[in-house]
Design goal:
heterodimer, A: mainly beta, Lipocalin, twelve-stranded antiparallel barrel, four-stranded antiparallel β-sheet, 1 helix, B: 116 residues, alpha+beta, Alpha-Beta Plaits, 3 helices
C-alpha cells in the first residue's frame, strides 16, 4: 500500500480532536481540559503552560499504526473588564506516526508551532452568594493558520493531520456554565467548531460537550486567610467529529465519536495552579479504520499576575 | 499736639508670640481632623463582604483591586468568611462606593461594608 494513499487515515491526529482537550481557552482555575465561567479580574492576566502526551495504537488494520503526539500549548488570559476576558493560545507540537509498509516499519514526524487561537468570553449571568457563585458565559473564537502545513519528509508532504498547523481559518463558539462553592466546583460546556478548507483539505466540523467536577480533598477544614487547596478532579469530554474532506470528497476513515474520561489532581494557591490529569477513552466509535486512542496525560501550571500597582 | 508714647508690655507680647508660633507648628505637623477619620488617629479598617469569592485563585484579584485604592495599608482576605479586611492609613479618604467598585472590578459582588 502506498504511503501517500493513507493521508486520510489519521483521524486521531486531527488537531480539532486532540486540541479540543486543551484549546478551549481555559487558563483560569477550574477544569483542566476545557474552559470555565469564573471571572478574570480586570487588568489581570493568567499565563498557562501545559505538556500533553497522547498515545494511540488501536489500529484495526495490518498497518499497525502507532501515533504519539506531544503538545505544549501556552495560553494567556487577560481581563478586559470583569465580564469580558480574552484568551490567546499557541501550541507547540511534536507528532509522530509509525507504520508498517512493504519495505519495513517507517516513521514520519513533524514538529513546530501550531495554529494560534484567539477567544473571547463574556459573563452573561452571575449569581454571587457568600461562598458560592453560579455563572454562565458564552465564548467565541477564531483559529489562525499560523502553523506550518507543508512539512515534508523523504516520502513527500506529510498528511495534513500530521502537520503542526491546519492551514485553515476556523471558528469556534459555545457556552460554559460554572457552579463553584468553597468545597467543590462543577463546570460544563458545549460548543461547535466550524472548520474551513485549505489547499483542498478540510477537517470535519466538531461538536463538543465537556463536564468537570472538582472536590476539595485538602484542607478538610478551611483555616484563616487564603489556604491552598488540593482538588480531586473528574472530567469528561465528548467529541462528535464530521468526516474530513479531501478535494471535496468525504474521507471514510475520519471522524466519529469519542468520549474521553479522566481523573486528575490540582494544587491551587492564590497565584499558582499546578495540575495533572490522566485520560482514557470510554467510547470510541470512529469511522472506517481510524486509529483509536490509548490514553493521554496532561500536566500544567497556571500563574496569575496583575497590571495594577498597589 | 503731642503723641503719648505707647507702652508695650514686652514679657506678655513674647508669650503671645510663642503661643502663636506653637499653634502654627502644631497645625503644620498634624493634618486637620477632617482629613484623618477617627480623632484618635488609629488606622481605619473596613470589613468587606465579597460574594462569589470561593476559591484561592479568585482571591488574588480581590486583593489587588482593593490594594490599589488610595490610602490602603494592607488587605487580608478571609476566604472561609467570604470577606476582605482592608486597613487604611489615617489620612485615607475612601468611600463605600470606591470599595464596591474595586470588588466589582475583581469580578465579584460586593456585600456589606463594616467600618471599624
Amino acid at each position: 500500500m502506498k504511503v501517500s494513499s493513507l493521508s486520510g487515515r489519521y483521524a486521531l491526529l486531527c488537531p480539532s480532536v486532540l486540541l479540543g482537550l486543551f484549546l478551549h481557552g481555559n487558563a483560569l482555575a477550574g477544569p483542566i481540559t476545557f474552559d470555565t465561567a469564573l471571572p478574570v479580574a480586570s487588568r489581570e492576566g493568567i499565563l498557562r503552560g501545559q505538556y500533553v502526551l497522547v498515545r494511540a495504537t488501536g489500529d484495526p488494520t495490518p498497518l499497525g499504526r502507532s501515533i504519539t503526539v506531544q503538545a505544549a500549548p501556552a495560553a494567556l488570559a487577560y481581563g478586559v473588564t470583569p465580564r469580558l476576558a480574552l484568551f490567546g493560545i499557541v501550541p507547540y507540537f511534536d507528532k509522530s506516526l509509525k507504520m508498517n509498509t512493504p519495505s519495513g516499519r517507517i516513521e514520519r514526524s513533524a514538529s513546530g508551532i501550531g495554529d494560534l487561537l484567539f477567544l473571547g468570553r463574556y459573563t452573561a449571568y452571575a449569581l454571587d452568594r457568600p461562598g458560592s457563585t453560579i455563572r454562565l458565559a458564552p465564548f467565541a473564537g477564531v483559529k489562525l493558520p499560523t502553523g506550518r502545513d507543508d512539512v515534508s519528509d523523504g516520502l513527500g508532504r506529510l498528511p495534513r493531520p500530521l502537520q503542526p498547523g491546519s492551514g485553515s481559518w476556523d471558528g469556534l463558539g459555545g457556552i460554559v456554565f460554572t457552579w463553584q462553592t468553597l468545597g467543590w466546583e462543577f463546570d460544563a460546556d458545549a460548543g461547535y467548531r466550524k472548520n474551513t478548507a485549505a489547499d483542498g483539505f478540510r477537517f470535519g466540523d466538531q461538536a463538543f460537550t465537556d463536564a468537570s467536577f472538582q472536590y476539595r480533598v485538602w484542607p478538610r477544614r478551611l483555616g484563616a486567610g487564603v489556604p491552598a487547596y488540593v482538588f480531586a478532579v473528574a472530567e469528561s469530554n465528548l467529541f462528535l467529529q464530521g468526516r474530513d474532506r479531501v478535494g471535496g470528497v468525504p474521507d471514510p476513515d475520519s471522524g466519529g465519536t469519542r468520549w474521553i474520561v479522566g481523573l486528575g489532581l490540582q494544587y491551587v494557591t492564590e497565584r499558582l495552579v499546578i495540575e495533572g490529569i490522566y485520560q482514557v477513552p470510554a467510547v470510541q466509535r470512529l469511522n472506517g479504520n481510524a486509529v483509536e486512542t490509548d490514553h493521554s496525560i496532561s500536566v500544567g501550571v497556571r500563574w496569575k499576575f496583575s497590571f495594577l500597582s498597589s | 499736639m503731642s503723641f503719648k508714647p505707647v507702652h508695650i508690655n514686652r514679657p506678655f507680647g513674647r508669650w503671645v508670640g510663642l503661643a502663636l508660633v506653637a499653634t502654627a507648628l502644631a497645625y503644620l505637623a498634624a493634618p486637620p481632623a477632617a482629613w484623618s477619620g477617627p480623632a484618635s488617629g488609629a488606622p481605619r479598617q473596613a470589613v468587606v463582604a465579597v460574594n462569589g469569592m470561593s476559591c484561592p485563585f479568585c482571591a488574588y484579584g480581590v486583593k489587588k483591586h482593593l490594594s490599589a485604592l488610595p490610602g490602603v495599608k494592607s488587605v487580608q482576605v478571609e476566604l472561609a468568611e467570604g470577606e476582605a479586611i482592608v486597613e487604611f492609613v489615617p489620612e485615607a479618604k475612601v468611600t463605600d462606593e470606591q470599595i464596591q467598585k474595586a470588588v466589582r472590578a475583581a469580578g465579584f459582588t460586593p456585600g456589606k461594608i463594616e467600618w471599624k
